[in-house]
Each structure stands twice: as structure tokens, then as C-alpha cells.
Predict the 3D structure of the following.
Amino acid sequence: MKICKTLLILLTLSLAACGAPIVVTLTATAVQIAKATPTLTVAASLLPSATSPVGTATARPSPSPALSLTPQPTATPARTWTLGLSAGGNPIDIYRFGQGPTPIVLIGGIHGGYEWNTILLAYEMIDYFEQSPSEIPSGFSLYIIPAANPDGLATIIGHTGRFSAQELPAGTTAGRFNANGVDLNRNWDCKWQKDAQWQTETISAGSAPFSEPETRLVSDFLTSLPAAAVIWWHSAMPGVFPGGCNDRFPAALALADDYSNGSTYPVQKEFVSYHVTGDASDWLSLQGIPSISVELSTHKDTEFKRNLAGVLSVLQAFVARPTPSVP
Ligand SMILES: [Zn+2]
């Protein structure tokens, strides 16, 4: 960029010395960003505002000042805010990348500190897309909720927000539940029952569907968008599970295939290990929102590269075919 600016200044001086009029017309509707390779075209709204001062080189203002310029791979800070507070009073933070009308949502840590690697994975995704905003196609917004159950994380490590694997104690099972002792992935209104199952244990699904503030906040957010796709990270059993309440939901099956193609986690059309009630993905299917649960291979590794490949595969698939209709 500095080289181009220098050339522009030299060109301007040369033209001025020759007495030539200086007119630079800027009429493109999108901004060309060339990283190393290849050249990409993204919506101007996805770019950091720091690029706009380049337009001051023009001698004639344009009513729609979009530019054609050499790439400036500047990191783009995400917009971040808090959806609300958990049962234990901890914030449920959310990050947004891009400004497009099609929202894709990634969610870690609904099972809190018990599945802490899914929270670290979400933070790794946040860091990645801050550094590589051009990976999000024009027309899309990417939302990331790193910890849907911050109480469960705080139970294990003593705080919420970012953390390192070195902070983890040996036993993390207690971190699965929120401050009310409820399993938040049994609290949604698909086949809900008060006494739910986790492996061989009977666990609390809350006093009613959406009895917990976390599930109310997240479900309201997802349906108000409405999300075009929702990806939940869990651990540990490698596989991609499509949401569907009683009936299969074709859009969720397609989403599972897309994520599997990139990540190489196998698609598992049914969860047969034990009976699951009140599941988030299953409820989302009733709202017409395709959703999948992605189970990482272990409770420790984030398996970032293969999950990034899964997310990018989903984005590319959305670009390639029409967005599933959402009521
Ligand atoms: Zn889980």
C-alpha cells in the first residue's frame, strides 16, 4: 500500500508538472482486495474503515465512494456485546463479523467447563476471523458465542471469558451444568422432560422448557435473526449430528453434509448412545432453522484446522446454493 501511495504521489507530481488535469474517477461498487493470491472481491461494508482515507487522493468527490485499491490485510475487530446474564449472573458474550444479511451462528460451551475445548475452539475462531475477515463471503454475517454456559466454565476455572488449557483441573464433570444445576442442552422444547438422561445418569432439564435464562436468551437471539444455520460444538465423540424433532429436517442434513465435507467428521444421522430430550438443534428444526451438533474427537484438543475447514465448507455451500427458506 505504501508503494502504491508513493507511486500515486509521484504520478500526481509528474502530471502536475506537465500541466495535466488530475482526475481520478472512483465508481466501483465493490472493493478489490488482493492478498498474496488470489484476488478477492468483497462487499465494501466488510472492510475496515481505515481503507477509506485512500479516497482522499481523488480530485473529484464521488457520490458513492467505493474504491478499487491494492489490498491492505488489516485485522478487523469484531463487534461484540453481551446477550444477557446466566443463572449465576455471568455474561453470555457474542461476537459478530461481517455485515451481510445471511447470519451463520457458531456456539461453543453449552456444556460449560465439562466441554471446555469447545470454548477454546470458539475463541480460536474469533481470533482467526479477526485476522482474516475476507474469509467471510460477501452477503454473510458470522456470529460466535464462545460460551453458552458461562456458569459451567466458571465452576471449573473460577472465571469466565478467555482462559488457557493450563487452568483446567483434572475433573470437569461438574462444569456441565449451569448455576441451577440444569443441563442446558436438555432445556429446549422438543420432547422435553424434566428428568433427562446423560450417559447412565438422570439429570435436571429444568422446571419447564426454557426455564433457564441461558436458553431463553440464546433461543430468542437465534429466532429473532433468524439464523440461516446454527452450529453447536460439543465433545467428545467424533461426528456431526443434524437437528430434527421427531422428523428428519432436510436442511439440517444438508448442513451436516457440508460441515462433514470440510471437517471430515462423519455424519451421524441418529444419536443412539442414550435417549436425548430437550435438545437445542432438534428444537431449532421446529423453527425451520437448520442446526447441527458437532462432537469433537476428545475433551482436550480443539481440532481447530478441521473445524475451520468445516465452517468454511458451510459458507461455501451457502454461496453455491440458495439459502434454505426460514419462516
Ligand atoms: Zn455437549
